[in-house]
Amino acid sequence: MTRLSEPSLKAYRAEGQRPSAKRLEQEIKARMPERSLMGIVARTAYWVEWWHRFGPPSGNEPKLDDPFGRYVITMFVKGTNMGPYEAARHIPRRERA
């Protein structure tokens, strides 16, 4: 408490990382596969099937060769605020064609 009867906290000083915490972090990294953001968006689109909600307003089937892939790429690009130039640099050519 301060002179004005206000509660106060002392600054907390970290003691450093324990060896057990370092081992735990290494074990988690070894067991956890590396994921890409595009892969995560594609998996959620497949599992949840949110990509079916996109398409022409008329309700007809989309006239795209691969609507799933196109909608996933569009969601990734728009969700990360990329412009066309950045998207062209980050998406492999075979997926853009």
UniProtKB/TrEMBL annotation:
Question: Out of the domains of life, which is the source?
Answer: Bacteria
Segments of this protein annotated with the region Disordered: 1-22
Where in the sequence does UniProt note compositional bias of the Basic and acidic residues kind? 12-22
**Protein name (database record):** Uncharacterized protein
